[in-house]
Amino acid sequence: MARLAALTNAVRTLDESVSRAQEAERLGYESVWVTQMPDARDAAVLLAAYAAATQWVRLGTGVLPIYTRHPTAMAQMAATLDELSAGRFILGIGVSHKVTVEAMWGLKLEHPADAMREYLSIVRASLADGSASADGKFFSARWSYSGPRRSTLPIMISALSPRMLELAGELADGVVLWMCGPSYIREVVVPHVRAGREKAGKSMEGFEIVASVQTSLTTNLDGARSVLRQVVERYSNLPFYRKVMDASGYAEELAAGNVSDALIDDLSALGDEAQIKESLGRFRDAGVTLPCVLPIGSHDGAAGYVQTLEAAREA
After folding, report:
1. Domain for residue 199, yes or no?
2. Range of the domain at 41
3. Domain total for the chain?
4. What's the pTM?
5. 82-85: Cβ within 8 A, 24+ apart
6. Whose CA is closest to 260, among 250, 268, 271?
7. Would 212 disulfide with which of 54, 208, 253, 292, CB 3.0-4.6 Å?
8. Is residue 147 part of a domain?
């Protein structure tokens, strides 16, 4: 089986969420990831439940917003969850969006790449050295951590823009992508990550490019596209993702208020097992090192969560 991850966001019940993580492990997926949604369960606590119910599968946050936790609190959480899971944790962090940070939380999202550089540097130092001393424009810290910590705990960031991608290449261990099609990954993500790696004197070896791919094993392509069209429409109204979609060749149709089948198909893996295999292959060929499968149902003809994971596993 090729390397695969599964996105196992919290669903209606906690038991079902945990069961999905267990199924991903049973099927040989190397990691399970959880995204922190503004209105959903706490992702870190959810991963603690996954850790208790699984044996070896790695556990990642894809991603946690930095403005809800001071970097020292993020380091404490990461070290504790890594200890709890016996060294299986992957920390993924991101800046979120202006509408969430400012309208929902009453904070300021300014100069996101500069803010992430400060934040990531504090978290990295805290985990690697057990202490951090930094006086930044956005984040400051003068502290030490006395608990167990893994100095090599992987830290990844959500990156879309050239500046954030280069920052990821320079300072992080990987990027976590959402709503990025193969052309954008090949033409924008990989070159800018490589530039950041070169700036730091590093090669691309060992750098993880994780891309979430909405996947549906289905006999009803139109039904699957109808479900995903609503998702794509919602994210196309967020500036960070809109820039990605515009740069991927969909600016004209989005400006006209349309979301085409071509755009939906570009971002997803829909159909039978062969079609899913072909779609995930496009992401790998573009430079993705770890496709992260997000099973999508909610339409007639859609297979269940486990069946979709099984189909993607053969890709």
Report:
1. yes
2. 5-220+270-313
3. 1
4. 0.95
5. 82/149, 82/150, 82/153, 83/147, 83/148, 83/149, 84/48, 84/51, 84/52, 85/47, 85/48, 85/51, 85/59
6. 250
7. 292
8. yes
